[in-house]
Design brief:
Helices cover about 30% and strands about 15% of the residues. It has about 200 residues and is α+β, with helices and mostly antiparallel strands. It has a single domain, classed as NADH Oxidase (3-Layer(aba) Sandwich). A hairpin with an 8-residue loop joins strand 3 and strand 4. The longest helix is centred in the middle third of the chain and has 18 residues.
């Protein structure tokens, strides 16, 4: 699929082709395919190679699905029920650095885990699948129902599936079912010091 997005500077088309639809077909994702998507995440850059990311997978129509799906906000359950799998992304917030013996905060945990999420998203796109990151869910419920320990942050839920026909969505969802644009690079980059409006 050719993306309607246009970059300000030359980049690989993968970056503009990746987007987050809500309309999915509901077809199962082969475990080998999902393993490839997660393998890409495994190789993301990581401070001191700490690899703080962890992924809890719930395939559609399996017992692992319900605890994740039930924690989603109602607005997200309205479309995510057609995903092939849901993945909870968590990150380890503490570690014992190399050469030390005491536990310390792992200050780069969210930053590194974001890199893993991006790697996952791009690999899925390359395989003809789509992922949609979800922030609207009950983190306490996920923590309790999935047994996430206190020293791990619950970062996000990700829906993965084959892109479906937008007609399965509500009118409000269908109105948003297109790749969105980005702010111009000039609004995101400053040289020398923080110099951004509001």
């Amino acid at each position: 699929m050719t993306s309607p997005r246009v970059s300000d500077h030359p980049i690989d088309p993968l970056f503009t082709r990746r987007w987050s639809p809500r309309a999915f077909t509901g077809e199962p994702i082969p475990r080998e395919t999902l393993s490839t998507v997660l393998e890409a995440a495994r190789w993301a850059p990581s401070s001191f190679n700490s690899q703080p990311w962890r992924f809890i997978v719930g395939h559609r129509d399996t017992p692992a699905w319900a605890p994740i799906f039930d924690a989603l906000a109602e607005v997200n359950r309205g479309w995510a029920h057609r995903a092939s799998a849901l993945i909870v992304i968590v990150s380890r917030t503490q570690w014992v650095p190399p050469g030390k013996t005491e536990v310390e905060p792992l200050r780069s945990h969210s930053f590194d885990t974001g890199a893993a999420w991006a790697s996952m998203a791009f690999q899925a796109t390359m395989l003809g699948w789509h992922v949609h990151g979800i922030g609207g869910f009950d983190r306490d419920r996920v923590r309790a129902s999935l047994g996430v320990p206190a020293d791990h942050a619950v970062e996000a839920v990700v829906a993965i599936g084959r892109q479906g026909d937008p007609s399965v969505l509500t009118d409000a969802q269908r109105a948003r079912e297109m790749p969105n644009q980005r702010q111009p690079l000039a609004a995101l980059v400053a040289e020398g010091r923080f110099d951004f409006p509001g």
